[in-house]
UniProtKB/TrEMBL annotation:
It comes from Chenopodium quinoa (Quinoa). The keyword NADP does not apply. Residues 442-475 are annotated as: Disordered. This is Uncharacterized protein. Residues 452-469 have a biased composition (Basic and acidic residues).
């Protein structure tokens, strides 16, 4: 009883810039704020992810120059594109586990610093093999997506977690569009300074490399893992249970809902990654455009993330407000289905104007579907949130690999049907991740607080088991 009273007192005396819930997660989202810890974590996470996306896709807009310098064949270019997204599939699984154990700040900064040398070494590529290996290792940095989503889910509560995840990921993904304009511009500026074609593209890679390095240090120095502090600090003070690696992984991999989200995410984000890799070259070669013009058109696809993916997260929150979890799931299914139809149409277009128009509309739906996906993920598991986020994120990369192998032009895109609705009580569902001994030791308390908050996602049709006339009806 005394421990409970102390906990209440601590909650009441803790001060934050934003209103918070029982876990000290922010219940509102203030985009223009940089207040520590919630909004500062938001801005650091998306900026770092932006830098990693910029580095990973710095090569595609310069491919017409690089292929002449390194004598790349179409097969070489395709393999390099696959390499850039395949390594991150495994890295995202590892990143999810790392976030569960050491926190998103250290995990993401460490990976960003470890992959930065590959970006610098892009300037030294002298063969198709070297080019492929550099793109492969650079692509590992895309696993920072998982730490971004984990971080946002740790900082923001149910009413706003969808938009927090959507905006952070969407603005990070902007790197895939921004690089289509930035790299040709940097290349052109370096040419203007007297460098040759084959030297200018190499120097240009130092821009994303330096940016990636600086933002990794910014996250490490100025970020905070949880509303109440960093993982190491919380473990030492006893405020956070230091979990067992094998149990975290087990409860993540054994949760079939995580595999379903991974499968569905593979066929929205996987397609987005594929288009990021090939779209500039596609317009350059098919419509005989200049490198700069093709880059601007290609950039418009990725730049739609400034509102499309955040919009998906916002739609998820709004649907949940009225229809709860079923609203989040149906919204994801509908948006992703429309995206699949548009993807088929894109592969059938023969004119420049028609291709651009369909690409723009398609970009909105495919990226919104990604935002809706991570409006669902935070509710799949409390204990193994990182593993589930990693599985889902890895599914996106696996989808990209498969898409580039058997679905390169986008005309075979198939939309998966949706996600099975969770139909147990919140307490029972999240308590299943803790055994009896762990519950007796009190390690499950954070999951119980999360379960209480998650009851707002419940539908009225469950009232026979959990009477509550204030609950909204389901669709």
């Amino acid at each position: 009883m005394m421990a409970s009273t102390d906990s209440v007192k601590e909650f009441e005396t803790k001060k934050f810039a934003l209103p918070v819930d029982a876990e000290h997660k922010a219940t509102t989202f203030s985009l223009m704020s940089v207040a520590k810890p919630h909004m500062r974590a938001f801005h650091l996470s998306w900026l770092q992810f932006f830098a990693c996306f910029l580095s990973t896709f710095a090569a595609p807009p310069l491919i017409p120059i690089i292929r002449d310098n390194l004598n790349l064949t179409a097969t070489d270019i395709g393999n390099a594109g696959i390499a850039s997204v395949s390594g991150a599939a495994f890295a995202r699984l590892v990143m999810g586990t790392a976030c569960d154990l050491v926190g998103p700040r250290v995990a993401s900064a460490a990976l960003t610093l470890l992959t930065a040398p590959a970006v610098y070494l892009s300037a030294t590529a002298d063969s198709p093999t070297a080019f492929l290996l550099i793109r492969f290792f650079t692509g590992f940095s895309l696993a920072t997506f998982v730490s971004t989503q984990f971080w946002m889910s740790s900082m923001f509560s149910q009413p706003v977690v969808g938009r927090a995840n959507g905006i952070a990921a969407g603005w990070g993904n902007l790197g895939g569009g921004a690089t289509q304009m930035i790299m040709p511009l940097v290349y052109k500026l370096i040419l203007g300074m007297g460098a040759t074609n084959f030297t200018a593209w190499r120097i240009a890679f130092f821009i994303p490399a330096v940016l990636q390095t600086l933002l990794a240090f910014a996250v490490l120095l100025f970020g905070q893992d949880m509303p109440d502090g960093n993982f190491q600090q919380l473990h030492k003070s006893g405020k956070k249970h230091k979990d067992n690696l094998s149990k975290v992984i087990y409860h993540g991999l054994a949760n079939y809902r995580g595999w379903i989200t991974a499968l569905c995410y593979g066929y929205c984000f996987g397609v987005e990654l594929t288009v990021d890799n090939i779209i500039a070259q596609y317009f350059f070669d098919r419509f005989n455009l200049t490198l700069h013009t093709a880059g601007i058109i290609a950039a418009s696809f990725g730049l739609a993330n400034i509102f499309a993916r955040p919009g998906g997260g916002l739609v998820s929150d709004l649907l949940a407000k009225k229809f709860r979890m079923r609203g989040r799931l149906w919204g994801w299914w509908i948006i992703q289905t429309v995206g699949g139809i548009l993807c088929i149409l894109l592969g059938l277009m023969n004119s420049l104007s028609g291709s651009i128009a369909v690409m723009l509309v398609f970009s909105v739906f495919v990226q919104a579907a990604c935002g809706l996906a991570f409006g669902v993920v935070p509710f799949v598991s409390r204990r193994s949130l990182g593993v589930i986020s990693g599985m889902t994120g890895a599914g996106g990369n696996v989808g990209a690999v498969l898409t580039q192998l058997i679905f390169f032009k986008g005309s075979q895109y198939t939309t998966e049907r949706g996600i099975t609705y969770m139909d147990t009580s919140e307490n029972d569902y999240y308590m299943e991740e803790w055994d009896l001994k762990e519950q007796q030791e009190g390690h499950h308390q954070a999951s119980l607080r999360f379960a209480d908050s998650s009851k707002s996602e419940r539908c009225r049709r469950q009232r026979s088991a959990h009477p509550d006339e204030s609950l909204p009806s389901c669709v």
